[in-house]
Structure formats: structure tokens, C-alpha cells
Amino acid sequence: MTGIVYKSTGSWYTVKTKEDKFFECRIKGKFRMQGIKSTNPIAVGDVVDFDVDNVDEATIGTIHKIHERKNYIVRKSVNLSKQTHIIASNIDVVFLLVTINNPTTTTSFIDRFLVTANAYGIEAVLVFNKIDTYDDTTLDEQLFLQYTYEQIGYKCLRVSATENKGLDQLKQMMVGNVSMFSGHSGVGKSTLVNALEPALNLKTKQISDQHQQGLHTTTFAEMFDLSFDARIIDTPGIRGFGIVDMEKQEIGDYFPEFFVLKENCKFNNCLHKEEPNCAVKEALDKDEIAWTRYKTYLQLLEGDEDNYRNDIYGDDRAASDETRKS
Predict the structure, then answer these.
(1) 72 - beta bridge partners?
(2) Cα separation of 1 and 61, whole Å?
(3) For labeling, which of 86, 173, 264, 286 is most exposed (least CB within 10 Å)?
(4) What is the pLDDT of residue 304?
(5) Which of 115, 128, 133 is nearest to 245 (CA)?
(6) How confident is the model at residue 309 (pLDDT cuts 50, 70, 90)?
(7) Within a 13 Å sphere around the CA of 60, how many CA atoms are in the beta-carbon half?
(8) Strands, E, within the chain: which ranges?
(9) SS3 per residue for 264-313
(10) Cα(89)–Cα(69) distance, integer angstroms
(11) 31, exposed or middle or buried, with CB in 10 Å at 0-12, 13-18, 19+?
């Protein structure tokens, strides 16, 4: 039988067939994807082949093949630095939920996510959530970030899941697609899914007052069929986003504003760091490139292993303030 993985708990997989039947499946022995050292060889969104057996009056499936993925989004495992974690596969568009505070989403986190989506050929959209909670200062910061990323070419949406603002536009982008919601814990992923499809009634929690961080509500990635011809993959909140398997020479290609300037650099293999006549550095000096973006690029270039685990918002905000003064 063939089906799509709708939920993964790490040991059990819920698979849906084209006949709309769900089967609980396991994998037999060690299941390794060729060329991918992953903590989870099978991910939500995978198309798999499986056999069905009756065990103790229960119908249990055994997955024996994964079909070729058109794409997947992967990050470095936080606990196992040499391992990767596939968040989901076969995605049409990924929506990164961003909140300015409560909790804070850093520009470094945003950039790392966008670089990975770009590298794996997945359209990424920034969704600024909780706009109903912004005061003047927070609104100013949000609009500045939106302007920064829209200038690069990224689509941005402003939504309020609790007040149903901006949801119609979001739905239009989801129709006919497999979408994924991602972001830190507490940015409102499950609340937003509930606003789009109230019948799902996904579990939500409040932000921790002490640490202003999100409380994990989604434990495992899970896909849901929505009533408006769309499928959504809801994912657990992630604190950091480690980049996987990128050569130094290719990192800049996944920053669109760097890529368009690359041909104007003096050297074909320019790393936009210390080389003379670098078009990217010249654009940076003219404030045509956001300093925060260049800072993230340098972190990736230098293999800054700790930054994706410990993003510091203060540095990003200070850099944004300096850019805005110019």
C-alpha cells in the first residue's frame, strides 16, 4: 500500500492512503536515507510504501520504502551537532511565523530559516503574527523588518490569529498547496491553525511570563486536511536553526540580494568578506543591504556553531537601529 505520512512520533507513523484511510505504521530495523544522516529518517509529508499485518487484533503497518522527495526542510539537531533533523518534506510553501516580542524572533533566526528554505527550493513567506498586541514602538520595529524583507523580494503578511486579521490573504496562498507553519514556541502556530480551521481545536498555551518564551504545545509534526482545499503541517516550536551541509562558496547564493550582485564582484569566488572590489561590501557601505543580514551571513560563513542555539536579540535590534539612522 502507498500513503502519505501525516504524523511522526519518532517511533510510530500515521499514514493516510488515497482512499482516506489511516494506518499506524512502524519501520523495520534501521531505516537510512541515502546521503542523509538524520535523527528521523521518515518525516511528515513523505510518500511511503507499507505492508499491513494484523497483530493482536490490531492492524499495524510496516514501512519499507520512501518515495523520492521533491524537497524537504532540514536543520541541524540541537543535541547532536553531527546529525540533522528533517522537519517535513514535499512542501509547496513554508510560512515562518514571526513575533517582535512575546516571544522575540531574531533576525538571525529568520535569515537562517530563509537560507535553508532557499537552498532546498521551498517558497518561504514571513507571517508577522499578533499585530493586535503591538504598541507604537513594536509596530515600528515590525514594519521596519517587513520593509527589509520585502525589499529583498520575500512576501510578508500581517495577521492576528485572535482577531482574524489577514487570514483571508493567508488562506488564498494556502489553497491547493501543502503548507508548513514554523517558528519559535509561542508565536501562535497552533492558534493560527485553529483560526483557519476552528474544528481542529489544536491545543494551545500561553507565553511563560517569567522567561517570555513559548511553551511547547505541538510535540510532533503533524499534517491536517483543511476544508478550503489545503493541507497544513503544524510543527513543534524551535529555538534555534542550524544550517546543514553548505559550502562557504554557496552560502551567499542563498541570500537573494547578495546573489544578484555577485557577478559585479571582481573575483568569481568572492566570499564578500575581505576581497577588493566586492559589490556586496560596496552595497553594504551604501546601506543598500541590511547590516543584520550581512551579520548572519558572516556567522554562517565562519561556521558559528553556537549562534543558532543562542540567538541574542539585543545585537540584532541594535544593528537595525543603526541601519535605520542612516
Answers:
(1) 89
(2) 9
(3) 286
(4) 61
(5) 115
(6) very low
(7) 11
(8) 2-8, 13-17, 22-27, 47-55, 58-66, 72-76, 84-89, 93-98, 123-128, 155-158, 178-182, 222-226, 230-234
(9) HCCCCCCCCCCCCCCHHHHHHHCCCCCHHHHHHHHHHHCCCCCCCCCCCH
(10) 7
(11) middle
pTM: 0.83
CA 125, 135, 308, 238 dihedral sign is negative
Locate 33 and state its grid cell: 536515507
Residue whose entry in the numeric block shows the C-alpha cell 503548507: 179
The three grid cell numbers given for residue 140, joined into one nine-digit string: 515600528
What is the Cα–Cα distance from 295 to 274, expressed in whole angstroms?
Answer: 14
Look at residue 312 and tell me whether its pLDDT is greater than 70.
no
The amino acid at residue 136 is D
Whether residue 289 contacts residue 283, with contact meaning beta carbons closer than 8 Å, is answered with yes
Segment 139-186, tens digit of pLDDT: 999 999 999 999 999 999 999 988 999 999 999 999 999 999 988 888
Cell of 107: 533576525
**DSSP state, 208?**
P
